[in-house]
Write a structure and sequence with these properties.
12 helices, alpha/beta, 7-stranded mixed sheet
Length: 405
């Protein structure tokens, strides 16, 4: 590696350490792994404060599980440089003011792109003293989640004094947006008036949203709640149960399983974010079958419909491109799901949700059970017409609903 390349790499590493030290780091990810561990995908780094000392918290993201290792900031620079020299080809640093993208070619050449963070706070000389604090205070009133809640600190969203850790700001926004959407659905369905509410969260992962939902019902609404997080990875199940125990929470538990095989009855709210392909259909079916008042799904990986779709002659020139066909298949799949929910007693919305961490998938299907049934014959005719138009023989949710009748 040339001296110039080494100098550029060292400069990038120095910026990372400075961001960790002065707590301006929002996101640092090392990707395009080329090392010997075939299970490792990438490493995400954030700043944490433990016992009044700041550390670089390194999340090793493997294919089937995640492992966190805390490193003293004084040792972080050497570790980052080691990763870039031997293990990773890409690194992306985001601070409050800057974004820096580093890539290393196969020949060892370092390329760096640096540009202003589009979300960087804008200063103004005309700002009145105290105005920024007042604006911040006003914005805080609109939050649906209070950042001093204990679970946020335990999950690494806030530091020891209750401030949002910069690298977790996106997750903080996601939690608030999710609870905002849920709160409106609760108002519409009257769930806050129930004596007890049962909630299932499929694919709960690290359970940021699972804990947030439990906290919202028990702390804000004062409703007795039983929340079950269902996760395929046993390690995360154990970790989340330990967190619930450490916080001395009642009415929340985590079990190993998946939506296709988990047996559930009497669910009031069914949540399934990023249920892959037909797992979304199984989740929607479970919500309908158990009579859930609220169903919240964020679908991804639309694979079932696409191979069946036959482009009508008029649309063939548009859909000859793979990306267009994929977008069309996604729209048709989720459109049919929404119509099937409508036909089975739900008012349904499909809308753009805030971008979820580590993915560009940000669509949500929100279904709220109607208080009074409606004639569904017209909706069923629409479903049949769409299937005939595209030559679709089978849609998983429709099949599941037919089998359960």
């Amino acid at each position: 590696m040339s001296n110039l390349t080494s100098s550029e790499l060292s400069s990038f590493v120095q910026e990372c350490v400075i961001a960790l030290t002065d707590n301006t780091l929002q996101r640092l990810v090392f990707s395009k792994y080329r090392g010997d561990d075939k299970e490792l995908n990438r490493i995400a780094v954030r700043s944490v404060e433990l016992k009044d000392k700041r550390f670089a918290s390194c999340l090793y993201q493997y294919r089937t599980n995640h492992i966190t290792k805390n490193v003293e900031i004084s040792n972080a620079g050497a570790l980052f440089e080691q990763w870039l020299l031997g293990d990773f080809q890409n690194a992306h640093l985001t601070t409050i003011e800057w974004e820096v993208q580093l890539s290393i070619s196969k020949k060892g050449k370092v390329l760096i792109n640096k540009y202003r963070n589009k979300n960087a706070p804008k200063s103004s000389d005309n700002t009145m003293p105290g105005a920024e604090m007042a604006m911040s205070h006003n914005r805080e009133k609109k939050r649906f989640v209070e950042q001093h809640r204990p679970y946020l600190h335990e999950l690494g969203i806030t530091d020891a004094v209750g401030d949002i850790i910069p690298s977790m700001s996106r997750k903080w926004k996601q939690i608030n947006k999710f609870i905002e959407v849920l709160s409106r659905a609760i108002d519409n369905t009257g769930l806050a008036d129930k004596n007890e509410v049962h909630i299932a969260d499929f694919g709960s992962g690290k359970a940021y949203l699972t804990f947030a939902v439990h906290d919202y019902f028990t702390d804000k609404l004062k409703v007795k709640t039983q929340v079950t997080g269902v996760e395929l990875r046993q390690g995360l199940v154990d970790l989340c149960n330990q967190t619930a125990k450490k916080l001395a929470l009642t009415g929340i538990k985590f079990e190993q399983g998946d939506v296709q095989h988990f047996k559930a009855q009497g669910i009031n709210i069914m949540i399934a974010l990023h249920a892959c392909d037909i797992a979304t259909d199984y989740a929607l079916h479970m919500g309908i079958r158990t009579g859930a008042e609220i169903i919240m799904c964020s679908p991804c990986c639309h694979k079932q419909i696409r191979p069946q779709m036959q482009s009508p002659a008029m649309l063939a020139p548009l859909l000859q491109h793979g990306i267009h066909m994929g977008q069309e298949a996604e729209m048709v799949t989720d459109g049919l799901r929404a119509l099937l929910l409508e036909a089975h007693g739900y008012d349904t919305q499909v809308f753009e949700f805030i971008s979820l961490e580590h993915t560009s998938k940000n669509k949500m299907i929100l279904a709220q059970k109607r208080k009074h049934p409606l004639d569904n014959s017209a909706t069923l005719a629409q479903i049949a017409g769409i299937k005939a138009f595209y030559g679709i023989k089978e849609q998983c949710l429709e099949t599941l609903l037919t089998q359960s009748q």
